[in-house]
Specification:
Two copies of one chain form a homodimer. Chain A has eleven helices and 16 strands. In chain A, α1 crosses α11 and α3 packs across α11. Chain A is globular and about 85 Å long. The interface between A and B is large, with 56 and 57 residues.
Chain lengths: 426, 426
């Protein structure tokens, strides 16, 4: 086993961060001299060609064999000479939201390649496939997780007819990228995969507030999205006394304070009213109608279902109190997904062995790992997001946290390689 | 004195309502066969020519001399053969909001002409000038009460440079209507006016809820318009636990419930948050910034000032509690205007003598009478608004209430003519 000093891992952490910033310059937005860099890189747009070229070079330099599958995932395979057992899948996505940061997604790909290097330096007999997923964010098309669904073999091919803002179908975007959409089923992974690990920035403030570099992800919270409409009566702001009003916004305000209390008093629940539209939205007219979104998330589906029910009951009670009507609709409902307990506990043990507290947190955001979890044992490692900032140019990651992820990887890979070989020998 | 039966006044009420509906067809919106009528008639737009033609004919039929002043007010003077003393000014506005009802403004002009007829039938020696104000609503230009300001001699001529949505200056709109803007100062009334009376629909629900046809207006409530901005921190709806949020909308909701309580617990105060804008207004992002309007009105300027101060303090306290910032700005501040006590009490006495309860209420909306009150004794008579509806095609007025306004007018005019003659003879 090659010995790696802490200094080497710290240097590589700095290099990984620099590489993410380099990739961030591969953007649909033109690079301007005077202005800060804007990164927007949607599914199979021109800058993806540059990212593939860069990553292909990196993979080939590591001795990996590289190909692009039919959904546009760049896939590199490290097959060690002494390979035994199944391969480990590592990866994350390379598409971004508009005006994104440099680390969401990309960092997971760059660190996957560093993990390959760590495996090589330890002469581990572990085959590793690194996947740079082409689509996760759901920005170019009204669908997300195209790539991980293709790998899991769960992509509904009907979505290929969806069009982007320019009227281009997914199928045509794939062809324009030089790929054959009829080969998508062949992108699905075979049974020779021992598990999937994804490294990703937390995108939330928990680790930053707690002063921790890393967390193992328990699972992805279940999520319900609802729409509520309070219907009152628009009227003149000057001529309608308070006791004769049916103010839709005043009713919504009362309900919003109750939703916030519900979430604050329910451990692990987050409730967000992020969108609000008012009719007629004029300073001198009492609001007649208010539309609100409600986003509820929790790791326990039962708790989530109860929160949903209470949100609806509170809306109905508030409306009834005030002589208003309320309508509601459930827009989406996703059950929670638990990460694989065995793989997660290996990851937590490696975090601890590397000298860091083995914190475990749920993820409130969706990730490719939740799609792959239906197919292979999957686990995730979060890196602290300073300030909790993501999806914004100010998104950063600390060198010391990337160093921690590399140290964790060295130990984790070594242990998993051992148990992988052992299970083959059995 | 000619004797008028109740039946005659009821028939004239029905005719007045029909006349308002006829005038409502004179609209900027094209009349379509299959669709309900839409009435939009802004300052000096083409349908105003039709309204002037109609009203000029009506005035001339009553033996009035008619002219259009330089701000576009159609003015008819009834000078009885036996005239003594000063003239009474009657009027209201003929411009409308977009997609308006048929009675707001116009009813006051139509009933003013009916009052002239009632004076004539009683051979009263009272000169009466009826003014159809060209501009009150502030819709075409970002200014309102152009007409009453011109009559009161308080029009700031700088406003003539303001432009409408098509870039047309007020001054050019006046010229295009065939008028000479340099003559606006001559539109101001002379000192030979004993007072101004305006009949108008209530535009609120008070009379309807109390089952009353008429009210004398105490005055126009003072009004403060403010803008508030709560500044928190936008963040991911899934990854940010409740205790780490600085949700601008949650803060605003708490504040909104406090504003509603303040108004409900302050006799005569109305507080309206009618406009709300959210950043970024996305279902999965915690709101980072919320802008809200606050409209406060009260007849007592001291109570209004205290309410304003409390609104600001509550916003500051809510923001401080939650680690947010709040900014506020006072956009407008109009003191309350009392109607003339003597003229109002004559009006109330006439209401009672006509057989109706002499209800007195403040007006939360602005009216031409509040501008003229600075120049001549002014009073207003409200007619019930069924359902409190105004500024909407469903706006109506009851025949029996118009009948009540005519009966009141007959008595009021007779009494005022007597005291007017008496004061001249003194």
């Amino acid at each position: 086993m090659t010995s790696l000093s802490a200094t080497t891992e710290r240097i590589r952490a700095a290099e990984a961060i620099a590489e993410c910033r380099l990739i961030a310059s591969m953007s649909e937005e033109p690079v301007r001299n005077q202005e800060p860099l804007q990164t927007t890189r949607r599914f199979l747009t021109p800058p993806v060609v540059s990212v593939h070229a860069h990553l292909r070079t990196r993979m080939q330099a590591l001795g990996m064999s590289v190909h692009t599958d039919a959904i546009g995932n760049l896939r590199g395979l490290w097959q060690p000479p002494n390979a035994t057992g199944k391969r480990l899948l590592l990866g994350s996505h390379i598409d971004t939201v508009p005006n994104a940061g440099a680390f969401d997604g990309v960092l997971g790909v760059v660190l996957a390649l560093e993990w390959v290097r760590l495996a090589q330096e330890q002469n581990l007999p572990l085959p590793i496939e690194v996947v740079a997923f082409s689509e996760e964010e759901g920005v170019r098309y009204p669908v997300s997780f195209l790539s991980s669904h293709a790998l899991a073999g769960t992509l509904d091919l009907k979505v290929l007819d969806l069009v982007d803002a320019d009227g281009i179908r997914i199928e045509d975007a794939i062809r324009a990228f030089g790929l054959d959409p009829s080969q998508i089923p062949a992108a699905a992974i075979d049974s020779n995969v021992l598990g999937y690990i994804e490294l990703h920035i937390e995108q939330g403030p928990v680790l930053d507030v707690e002063g921790l570099p890393l967390a193992v992800v328990e699972g992805i919270a279940g999520q319900s999205r609802l729409g509520f409409r309070f219907i009152g009566h628009a009227n003149h702001a000057g001529t309608t006394p308070m006791h004769l009003r049916r103010d839709a916004l005043a009713a919504a305000a009362t309900w919003m304070t109750e939703i916030e209390s519900l979430a604050r008093n329910t451990e692990g629940l987050v409730a967000t009213i992020g969108k609000l539209t008012l009719e007629p939205n004029a300073t001198n007219v009492i609001p007649g109608c208010v539309d609100l979104s409600l986003d509820l998330r929790h790791m326990n589906d039962q708790v989530l279902a109860e929160a949903l029910q209470q949100s609806v009951q509170k809306a109905q009670a508030t409306a009834a109190d005030r002589g208003l009507q309320v309508e509601w609709i459930q827009k989406t409902s996703e059950p929670s997904i638990r990460m694989d307990p065995a793989l997660s506990s290996e990851l937590a043990a490696a975090v601890q062995a590397a000298g860091y507290p083995p914190r475990s947190i749920p993820s409130g955001a969706g990730h490719d790992a939740m799609i792959l979890a239906h197919r292979v044992p999957s686990a995730m490692l979060f890196l602290r997001s300073p300030g909790g900032i993501s999806h914004h140019p100010d998104e950063t990651v600390l060198e010391e946290d990337v160093e921690a992820a590399l140290k964790t990887g060295r130990i984790f890979l070594s242990r998993i390689a051992k148990s992988n070989s052992a299970s083959v020998l059995k």
